[in-house]
Amino acid sequence: MITKNKLSGRPNARLTEQFNHSNSEPVSKKAHKTKSAHKKRISTKFMIALLILLIAVAGATFGAITVVRKNINTDQPAEEIEPIEDNIKNDVEPEAAEPEMVEEVEVPISEDMQSIQPITNITSSNPTIKYGRLMLINPNFMVDGDFIAARKSELISLSSTYGISEYHSYNGDNLIDKEAGAQLARMLADYTAAYPGHEIQTVSCFRSIGTSCGRLCMPTGASDHHTGLTCDLIDPVYGDSLDTDTLDQHLEWQWLKANSYKYGFIDRFPLAWSGGPMSEPMNVDGEGSTGLYETWHYRYVGVYAATQIATGVYNNGEYDSLEHYLKARGLVTDLLSGI
Concatenated DSSP letters for 224-272? Predict the structure, then answer.
């Protein structure tokens, strides 16, 4: 509202100025408020749109996770992924490694087991033949003619191989097992070296038939001479009589008794295991008695067994018999029944 000056009828300039001044401030504030309100509306719309966008993104993400979980929890087996190694192997075949050479180690056989290794493939009803050098042939452990003939074919000649003479030519060639022959030759050479001018000769080695000369002889099939491991020995310097009563007069028998085990030989029929005087009936018992006493009869059993027999490992330190030794080692059960 504009007032007029009462005197002139013109508008009052002062009042007009005041009026205009008073009215201009409210208009500016209103316009400012209108701008602010507009900005707020725009900001609100932006925030709402952003919120909607975030909700949409979150929903899509949640849906994808749900689908993945559903696929993981499904009963259908997952597709197998071929290992990288397999792919590499299929693409490039590696060179085959050369097999590592393993050196064969021979397991040593104990001397105890070596002493009973077979030395012939000949079959026999005698159960001790499989014990090789420890085979037992006596009246209770006999062999037949087939064994005797086959065993003879496996032997060598001492006279031809080592020049060892057979004292009685009518006994034929002095045949013996190859290993036993080599050891016998060494033993007799050492005897001659110890007593120059002396030599031991064989009187009888392998025999195909037995003898019938009383208690000192064994029938065919029961003789230790069938083994091919035995020889009767004598030094001709002391005569050719095989008489146990003359033992003191025969240096070779004394030397053999003391040293033969070092070469694998034993006194096969020692006095202690004779089973009584030779004038009495033969006594081959179940404890190890041989029934014989012969100071000239030496049998090869190998150094290990010979040492055990000569030193009495199973006989309280006293010279053993082959029979008792086999029983003590559990290699035979009954010396009387031949098992």
Answer: GGGGS-EEEEE-GGG-S---GGGGGG-HHHHHHHHHGGGGTEEEEE-GG
Strands, sheet with 201-204, edge to edge from the N-terminal-most edge strand: 201-204, 230-234, 294-300, 265-269
Which residue in 256, 225, 223 sits closest to 238, CA to CA? Answer: 256
**35-91 confidence digits (pLDDT tens):** 555 555 656 666 777 777 777 666 665 555 454 454 444 444 444 545 544 444 455
Tokens 């508008």 belong to residue: 11
Query: Where is 296: in which H helix or E strand?
Result: strand 294-300
In angstroms, rounded to a whole number, what is the distance separating the alpha carbons of residues 274 and 314?
A: 18
Residues β-bridged to residue 266: 299
pTM of the model: 0.69
8 A C-beta contact, residue 319 and residue 270: yes
For residue 68, what are its two tokens? 């993945």
